[in-house]
């Protein structure tokens, strides 16, 4: 498959780009929500519009009422979300959540997916325990209790956790904390007794929860996939979330770069446009190259994932690591090249720097994924 | 006992008797600092007493002449004063841009009348000063400033806008670069002093990406400045400004070199551990750079003392120190993970890691950008052509 | 069966019957390559037969017109030819700068007479060509070249010096940029062809930091070049040169993207292991870059095929690919340790790791320096002012 | 102690700089030896001159006939050796060898040190076994045999090994290969039976040996320091060699940088001196900063070592790592900024690149020492 959009994808990109640049732009969304002290983390009306355009169901199978498309298509949406810093539950819900639920029972699917597709529900992944991503270590205890399970423990960095209709929770049902196997995935409804949320605003104005589970009881129907065999589904959800966040990062990097090159063409110092200074030109050209390469890595990984290739896993980590590094460079150069005004809240470039940091951290940062590339390569 | 030993004994005795115990504790918050000024609200009685006692002996500015409010100490005596202050951990009785910046400039460029008047005010902490240099259109290219003072015989009418004026909203007076000759870029700027309550002066705080800040935008709308309030000659304010900028850059490079750039791997290991080998490698490489830079800082200060440092070396220190500090906070954010992302939580004391990280991004912009530093190194140290 | 299917069947049958088995083995050494030319010594009978059989059918240059020695294949047919050649691992019957560089230029800029004459010679491998572009004083700034051709009516007298002339000491003819108008920088250069045995031509091989090389210095001392031996118009040789340089840059960027830039961590692990965790981290970071760049190479080729790539994108590929390749060899040297330092030992096959590492340093110089690539990206892709 | 030369050191630097820039310059030494297919690795006449100037005895105590100076002074010599790429046994003999022998019996000292001080002897360290520096793993077997020991095994990367009067050999007398303790240092004379040399030329034209020990017998008097307790002396010799190679590296970096800035001021392209291009100016200014910082780290480590500070060990690794990275940048930028001519053997800049590589590898490269900084710092 060639590494560029086919006709359908190009059409989707056209539509999505215009829509998000309009409705999802920084001023009407990110700044409005932030300055209004929003505590939800997104605008429900915009989420509904996503649904009206069919975007919420991209990764939901046609049988389940979605479009049954792939990661390339989801990435098209995410890139524009990134470019406009649009606060949206798309990644946690329509990408990570929908991928996990795609492997659930018909009953569970029926309970949540229609709401997702309709833009009325939000899902959140409750996975990390602690400040760094360590999906191989799950300590949250899920004991058998009657017909179901009783969950005790805590989860951190649960984006959209406080407003989600269901939490996708990885719990330990067998083995010790660091065993790869022995975990089970649950869809825990928001109103389950014993759930406590400590919702905090993050640097990028998104809202994440520290969630406590105090003997939370769920019935057996809440299990996604196999009991003790949740790792397989979790890995699929992780791959989706990782390549999704990588795609969103390329949008963030591209948006920051566009702002920066525009500034280089208008700001004057020492009687010249600062874009005339060769030192800045070379840095901009290097940055362009890095962003292009990151984009290529992302689309390659998306295609491999969509094709079910055995190389997808490696390439997803390559893409997340590369996109993180390239976008980090883009926002650092962006702020520096903007000079003093880049430090002000009034200019948008700093918002890109903030979003980059939060996205890079989501489901494994560049160091995590570089290490994973080494491990998967056998060294 | 030599004279200096006797001097040290006197100082020590005076400090023992006069520095309140509360003033011997480390400064923890911004408002532990005594900035002085008309509107200053002392945080404690001890802070007020400590200032008054020091003012009475000229100890707020120990190396200024007595006639200007100082204690007239020579360099050896001033060093003893600093050492004895450090020995008991005494807080500075007064901190201000007046002492650090305007004072030295007045001592060099002011008239006798100006010195007596303004330096004494500064020494007593009566007037808090701010600095009006940068403008929206003139960042690195400071000399392109546009704020204009129209000559009206015995006064100027000043119009224009400054930016990055630290504490402008709290300051009583401003020392300000104003264009007084539009035809002459470098020799058309004057260094003026005026009261911030003069009609037509207004300020607006600047919110940074890291949150609230002491910086302001400052606007001048037909502000009347009497002719007597110029420092140095008409249209030669750039000389005064350059002299001050040198001071500022040395302060920043000194600060960068000494305190902030310690190694961090061991700290990260203690706070939560390093479970990613790539992060560990990055920390190790950073620690190599940081420990090497600490040696550089030490060498730089040693060489400065004996005049061995290249006069442009502060530019190198500022460049390397600020770039390293930015990298340091990038690593701290990576090590801190999702907790470090929190913006308002109690656990992070209101987002300290993230706000500090974002604040460091200004290090390589304020006080001369990294690009300007590199230009200066290329020109003045490497003597590259056309630089 | 479609026409193309029939064509493929024909080609396959012809190759089966005519490509000697020895010519289906991978090229291992420089002298496995058939360069042609007057003085060429065939390494084997098979090499000679394979060339002759291909020449007879125009297969050395399958997409050139039959009148010029080619097989007149259209793009679809030429693709089939390449696929069928690749299927059996057949070596190219003939490799030469004549085919890659001069040929395309003659096809675009040559007169009918020149095409018939020179292209047929190239197709038959009779004449080996070298390229006279760079001069000691004109590296990146190629157009500043000084080699001068004085107009003598029906011929020029050429004097000057070229550098980096690959295989000049083995070539029969040269295609050479010569200044024919000193007053006009860009429009004062002509593209001349002449015999390397012309009196006044001499060459001297250049020894590189990596050892012996195919590069030469080439000197012209009153060399007579007949007027008929110009390609394109007088003083418009720069147009021809730019056309050729585009070809060269694409070749280099293509090569950089496909073969050499594979990930290396696993290879290093197999050969001796990685016992240093910082090296492991560096290899991991490199592998991320290399695997991402491999995707970029694939995307670039896909986009080129359908005209989606930015026309200046080869500059980005060349920049990133060559910088990565240099880094790759730095890491291989670090991983290889003291063994990799050996210069003449049998164990290292005469210092292969060190010589390869040093040779890569030219990657970002030859065919346009990284600095020139960045300039071009800034100007043509980013549209930055004054670039 | 201030981090600049005291008066005596400044005088020494003056003398040494002039001497080595004259007698030890690239043309009369490195190129002459290399192009003459020298197999010794240094010029004995020059080595004799080193002795006449007192340089060979810098680290030899006054009691043993030397000057009893320190690592700062040795570093002054090494920096100039580095700047001029002078082939010299100074580092292996007067720094590493002399440091090791300084802890030997009077008998052993008497046997070798006078020759070292006189510029008539050369010493070599036979430590590494394999292509990478791993001093913590010593496998060469040293069995007790009668009054002495019998050595069997191999050593690699033994610089000046083939011409050395004695090899300083680390052998295993107790414990297993990876035990820190249980090693013994020997001074093995060149004519001991059973030693085999495979001397190879390295990329920088220096000569290193693969040395085989086939039941080489030495008497008990050949032991340096304690039997089974050789690690203590070895560590001192390693510290000397590491900070010594770091000092030489700063000379290599400084020499390459001087050549490069000179070239920037003379080479024209596009009608300008290439040093006028801002992109190159900024890279040169950055490189200057890195080289200055490396110099500071080196002198700091030298002073700590001379003062016997407990922080010396950490700072030696900081200095070696920093000097390696800074000098590596200097030679890479040097070749690139020279353009095509930088690739030719005719220009000296490539010789700097070659020496940098070999020196960086000696007694641990930048990765080794960065890792050691982490380990010594407790992470």
Automatic annotation (TrEMBL), chains A, D:
Highest rank taxon of the organism: Bacteria
Leader sequence residues: none
Key words, A-Z: FAD, Flavoprotein, Oxidoreductase
All copies of domain Acyl-CoA dehydrogenase/oxidase C-terminal, residue ranges: 229-374
Classification via InterPro entries: Acyl-CoA_Oxase/DH_mid-dom, Acyl-CoA_Oxase/DH_mid-dom_sf, AcylCo_DH-like_C, AcylCo_DH/oxidase_C, AcylCoA_DH/ox_N, AcylCoA_DH/ox_N_sf, AcylCoA_DH/oxidase_NM_dom_sf
Residue span(s) of domain Acyl-CoA oxidase/dehydrogenase middle: 142-216
The keyword Flavoprotein is assigned to this record: yes
PANTHER family: ACYL-COA DEHYDROGENASE, ACYL-COA DEHYDROGENASE FADE28
Family under the similarity heading: Belongs to the acyl-CoA dehydrogenase family.
UniProt-recorded name of the protein: Acyl-CoA dehydrogenase-like protein
Taxonomic source organism: Novosphingobium nitrogenifigens DSM 19370
From TrEMBL, chains B, C:
Domain Acyl-CoA dehydrogenase/oxidase N-terminal span(s) in chain numbering: 4-126
Any one annotated GO CC term: plasma membrane
UniProt entry tagged with the keyword Oxidoreductase: yes
Start and end residues of each Acyl-CoA dehydrogenase/oxidase C-terminal domain: 235-382
GO molecular function list: flavin adenine dinucleotide binding; oxidoreductase activity, acting on the CH-CH group of donors
Spans through the membrane: none
Domain of life (superkingdom): Bacteria
Residues covered by the Acyl-CoA oxidase/dehydrogenase middle domain: 130-223
Alphabetical UniProt keywords: FAD, Flavoprotein, Oxidoreductase
Pfam families in the cross-refs: Acyl-CoA_dh_1 (PF00441), Acyl-CoA_dh_M (PF02770), Acyl-CoA_dh_N (PF02771)
Entry cofactors: FAD
Family matches, as InterPro entries: Acyl-CoA_Oxase/DH_mid-dom, Acyl-CoA_Oxase/DH_mid-dom_sf, AcylCo_DH-like_C, AcylCo_DH/oxidase_C, AcylCoA_DH/ox_N, AcylCoA_DH/ox_N_sf, AcylCoA_DH/oxidase_NM_dom_sf, Mycobact_Acyl-CoA_DH
Family recorded in the similarity comment: Belongs to the acyl-CoA dehydrogenase family.
Protein name as annotated: Acyl-CoA dehydrogenase-like protein
């Amino acid at each position: 498959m060639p590494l560029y959009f086919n006709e359908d994808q190009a059409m989707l990109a056209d539509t999505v780009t215009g829509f998000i640049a309009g409705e999802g732009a920084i001023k009407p969304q990110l700044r409005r929500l932030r300055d209004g002290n929003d505590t939800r983390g997104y605008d429900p009306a915009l989420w509904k519009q996503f649904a009206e355009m069919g975007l919420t169901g991209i990764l939901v199978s046609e049988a389940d009422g979605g479009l049954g498309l792939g990661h390339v298509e989801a990435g098209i949406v995410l890139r524009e979300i990134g470019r406009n810093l649009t606060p949206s539950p798309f990644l946690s819900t329509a990408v990570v959540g929908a991928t996990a639920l795609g492997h659930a029972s018909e009953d569970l699917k029926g309970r949540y997916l229609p709401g997702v597709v309709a833009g009325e529900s939000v899902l959140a992944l409750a996975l990390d325990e602690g400040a760094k991503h360590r999906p191989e270590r799950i300590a949250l205890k899920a004991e058998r209790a009657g017909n179901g399970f009783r969950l005790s423990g805590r989860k951190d960095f649960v984006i959209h956790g406080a407003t989600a209709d269901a939490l996708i929770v990885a719990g330990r049902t067998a083995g010790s904390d660091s065993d790869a196997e022995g975990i089970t995935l649950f869809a825990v409804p928001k109103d389950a007794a014993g759930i406590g949320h400590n919702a905090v605003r993050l640097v990028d104005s998104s809202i994440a929860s520290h969630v406590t589970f105090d003997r939370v009881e769920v019935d057996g129907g809440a299990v996604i996939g196999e009991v003790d065999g949740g790792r397989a589904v979790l890995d699929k959800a992780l791959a989706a979330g990782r390549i999704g966040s990588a795609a969103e990062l390329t949008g963030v990097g591209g948006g920051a770069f566009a702002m920066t090159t525009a500034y280089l063409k208008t700001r004057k110092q020492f009687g010249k446009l600062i874009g005339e200074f060769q030192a800045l030109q070379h840095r901009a050209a290097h940055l362009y190259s890095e962003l292009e390469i990151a984009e290529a890595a992302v689309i390659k990984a998306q295609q491999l994932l969509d094709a079910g290739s055995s190389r997808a896993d490696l390439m997803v980590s390559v893409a997340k690591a590369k996109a993180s590094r390239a976008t980090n460079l883009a926002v650092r150069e962006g702020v520096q090249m903007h000079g003093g005004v880049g430090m002000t809240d009034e200019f948008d470039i700093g918002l890109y720097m903030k979003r980059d940091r939060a996205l890079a951290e989501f489901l494994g940062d560049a160091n995590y994924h570089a290490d994973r590339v080494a491990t998967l390569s056998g060294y | 006992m030599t004279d200096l030993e006797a001097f040290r004994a006197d100082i020590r005795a005076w400090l023992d008797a006069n520095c309140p115990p509360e003033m011997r504790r480390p400064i923890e918050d911004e408002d532990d600092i005594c900035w002085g000024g008309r509107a200053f609200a002392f945080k404690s009685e001890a802070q007020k007493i400590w200032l008054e006692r020091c003012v009475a002996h000229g100890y707020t500015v120990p190396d200024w002449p007595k006639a200007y409010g100082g204690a007239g100490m020579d360099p050896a005596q001033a060093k003893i004063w600093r050492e004895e202050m450090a020995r008991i951990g005494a807080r500075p009785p007064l901190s201000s841009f007046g002492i650090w910046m305007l004072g030295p400039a007045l001592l060099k460029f002011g008239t006798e009348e100006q010195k007596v008047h303004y330096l004494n005010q500064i020494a007593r902490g009566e007037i808090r000063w701010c600095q009006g240099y940068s403008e929206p259109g003139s960042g690195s290219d400071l000399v392109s400033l546009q704020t204009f003072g129209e000559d009206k015989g015995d006064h100027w009418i000043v119009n224009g806008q400054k930016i990055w004026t630290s504490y402008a909203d709290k300051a009583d007076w401003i020392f300000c670069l104003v264009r007084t000759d539009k035809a002459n870029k470098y020799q058309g700027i004057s260094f003026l002093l005026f009261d911030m309550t003069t009609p037509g002066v207004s300020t607006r705080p600047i919110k940074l990406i890291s949150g609230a800040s002491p910086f302001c935008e400052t606007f001048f709308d037909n502000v009347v400045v009497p002719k007597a309030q110029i420092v140095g000659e008409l249209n030669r304010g750039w000389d005064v400004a350059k002299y001050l900028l040198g001071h500022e850059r040395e302060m920043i490079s000194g600060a960068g070199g000494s305190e902030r750039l310690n190694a961090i791997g061991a700290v990260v290991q203690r706070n939560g551990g390093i479970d990613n080998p790539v992060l560990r490698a990055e920390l190790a490489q950073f620690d190599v750079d940081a420990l090497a830079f600490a040696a550089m800082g030490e060498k730089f200060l040693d060489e400065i003392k004996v005049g061995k440092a290249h006069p442009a070396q502060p530019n190198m220190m500022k460049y390397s120190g600020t770039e390293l500090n930015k990298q340091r906070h990038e690593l701290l954010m990576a090590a801190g993970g999702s907790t470090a992302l929190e913006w308002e939580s109690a656990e992070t004391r209101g987002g300290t890691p993230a706000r500090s990280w974002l604040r460091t991004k200004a290090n390589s912009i304020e006080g001369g950008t990294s690009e300007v530093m590199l230009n200066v190194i290329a020109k003045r140290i490497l003597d590259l052509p056309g630089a």
